[in-house]
Design brief:
It is a single chain. The protein has 125 residues and is mostly helical. It folds into two domains: 31 residues, no CATH class; 87 residues, 434 Repressor (Amino-terminal Domain) (Orthogonal Bundle), CATH 1.10.260. Helix content is 54%, strand content 8%. It has five helices and two strands, in the order E-E-H-H-H-H-H. Strands 1-2 form a two-stranded antiparallel ribbon. Helix 3 crosses helix 5. The longest helix has 21 residues. The two termini are 23 Å apart. The relative contact order is 0.12.
């Protein structure tokens, strides 16, 4: 049984959960749990408000990869093993400082999609 605590803020009721419980619920719902402090920061715009396109794309892909990997409960090591690539490759991509080849992205996407599908079937969704 969950020991839920309820609080009221500005007339609205909220439920407080312990972080591991919240993370499990997110994983069960297929949602990523990555905290912003573990995601690589998005680059800042220049004086004209323009973002550096390549850097922004790398970091956006890195952030999505981290969220997707965590949403299906895979470690970098396990994702790399299933995708047939090195763990160092996953780490470099998640840093947002390296560009993946289309083939590498396809391998990673296949593993995440297959894992998500297996997880959904196991839960009867």
């Amino acid at each position: 049984m969950l020991g839920l605590q309820r609080i009221e803020v500005a007339g609205k009721r909220f439920v407080l959960l312990e972080e591991p419980v919240y993370e499990r619920l997110c994983r069960d719902a297929g949602e990523a749990v990555a905290d912003d402090d573990v995601l690589p920061p998005l680059p800042k715009p220049d004086a004209n408000g323009r973002f550096p396109a390549i850097e922004y794309t790398r970091v956006s892909l890195a952030r999505n990869l981290i969220r997707d990997r965590k949403s299906v409960g895979l470690s970098q090591e396990r994702l790399a093993e299933l995708a047939g690539i090195r763990q160092e490759t996953i780490s470099r991509l998640e840093s947002g400082k390296h560009t993946a080849t289309p083939g590498t992205i396809a391998k990673i996407d296949r593993v995440i999609a297959a894992t998500r599908k297996r997880t959904s079937k196991a839960k009867g969704k």
